[in-house]
C-alpha cells in the first residue's frame, strides 16, 4: 500500500513539474515572445528546475511545443462545444462562434499566434499538429451543421467544405484581430460574421441544387 502511494505521489509530482514547464513557456509566449526564441535552459529556469531535469518530461523543445499546441487545441475544442451548446439554446451559431473564439484569441494571444505560425511552419511535426487541430475543429463543426440543418429541414451542400472555410476564417481573422486597434475591433468582428453567413447561405443554396 505504501509503495503504491509513493508511486502515485511521484507520478503526480512528475505531472505537476511537466505542467510547470508548459506554463513557463506559455507565460513567455503571452509576454510577446515567439516559441523559436525560447531555449530549453530558459524554460527550465523559469519552471524552477535544473536543465538536465527537462529531459525527464520532454525529449526536446519540439516536444514541449507540441504539448502547448495540444493543450491549446483542447481548450479551443471546448470553446467550440460551448458555442454549439449556446446555439442549441437559440443564440446565433455564427455570432457565438466568432465572439467566443475571438475572446479566446485576445485572452491567449501568445498561444494563438503560435498555432497560426506553426500551421505554416517548416517543421513537419508542428505543422501537422496545427493542421490536425483545425481539421478536428472543422469535423466537429461540419457534424453540427449537418445535424442542425436536418432539424431545420434545410438541405445543406458540402458541409465539410463550408466548415473548413469557416474555421479558416475564424483563425485568420481572429489572429488579425490581435493587431487591430481596439476601436476597430467591432467592425472586424462584424466582417467575420458576415463572411461566415455568406458561406452558410452558399452551402444552403448548393444543397437545393
Give a verbal description of the structure.
- With 209 residues, the protein is mostly helical.
- The protein folds into 2 domains: 1-58, Homeodomain-like (Arc Repressor Mutant, subunit A, Orthogonal Bundle); 61-207, Tetracycline Repressor, domain 2, CATH 1.10.357.10.
- Helices cover 78% and strands 0% of the residues.
- It has 8 helices and no strands.
- The chain has helices spanning 2-30, 40-47, 61-88, 93-107, 109-119, 124-152, 159-177, 185-207.
- Helix 3 runs antiparallel to helix 4, helix 4 packs across helix 5 and helix 4 runs parallel beside helix 7.
- The radius of gyration is 20 Å and the shape is elongated.
Features:
elongated, mainly alpha, single chain, 209 residues, Tetracycline Repressor, domain 2, Arc Repressor Mutant, subunit A, 8 helices
In short:
The chain is an all-alpha fold. The protein has two domains: 58 residues, Arc Repressor Mutant, subunit A, CATH 1.10.10; 147 residues, Tetracycline Repressor, domain 2 (Orthogonal Bundle), CATH 1.10.357.10. The longest helix is centred in the first third of the chain and has 29 residues.
Number of helices: 8
Helical amount: over 70%
Sheet with most strands: none
Structural class: mainly alpha
Look at the structure and give the mean pLDDT.
Answer: 84
**CA(first)-CA(last) distance:** 67 Å
Any idea of the CATH class of the largest domain?
A: Mainly Alpha
User: Any idea how many domains?
Assistant: 2
Please, what is the CATH homologous superfamily of the largest domain? Tetracycline Repressor, domain 2
Question: Helix and strand string, N-terminal first?
Answer: HHHHHHHH
- The CATH architecture of the largest domain can be named as Orthogonal Bundle
Strand content: under 5%
Shape: elongated
Rg of Cα set:
20 Å
